[in-house]
Amino acid sequence: MSVLVAVGALALCAILSAALLDSRRKRRDLEKRLAVADRAAHTDPLTGLANRAGLQRALDHQRASTRPSDHIAMILLDLDGLKETNDLYGHDFGDSVLVAVAHRINEKAGHAACAARLGGDEFVVLLSGEAPQDADALAAELCADIASAEVMSEMPIRCSASAGVAVLPAHRMHQLVTAADQAMYRAKSTRAGTSRYQPLTDVADRIPRNRTALVALEGGASKEAQG
């Protein structure tokens, strides 16, 4: 009888061990699938940079890890003439331009808290807390690098970019995208290349109506700040 009990116990242990191993395998598989889904949800599929959701997560992280007295910098880049390039050479070539620009941004802004493509031909670089003083220099370097980038050797097309820089205290982080966009719009309209946000100069009514969707990224944080 004791032998049967021992055999039964061993069999039960074997069954439980197999079930436990299977449960752990399923959990690892689930974690991998969740990680892939999370990466896809926060990454631009064309360029590999963060997308809007990825940028928002980076902003939330910065908001949680900085003091109200700290300053945060953002660079917003808008490519010049991409529509004409698409019309002339096709959207596949236009996509090659976007990928080349993303590569340049990755090379120059590897230390950034986040590099993102907002959609279309607009890119954002969010700088970490220790780097805002370098934002103007980095914006100029990015514009110079983008202008010097040869997209394809068999079709030596080059593009240029306009950059807006905003450096704001952490408690105004919800205004970063709007401020950088206003500065970028001034740089583009004056053909200055780069421009720093100036509160007394960059007013909201200078942004064309078709750019208002860009501000939606900050909408939730703005309402939260007002509350």
UniProtKB/TrEMBL annotation:
Domain annotation GGDEF: ranges: 70-202
Annotated InterPro entries: Diguanylate_Cyclase, GGDEF_dom, Nucleotide_cyclase, Rev_trsase/Diguanyl_cyclase
Record Pfam families: GGDEF (PF00990)
Name listed for the protein in its UniProt record: GGDEF domain-containing protein
Organism in which the protein naturally occurs: Saccharopolyspora endophytica
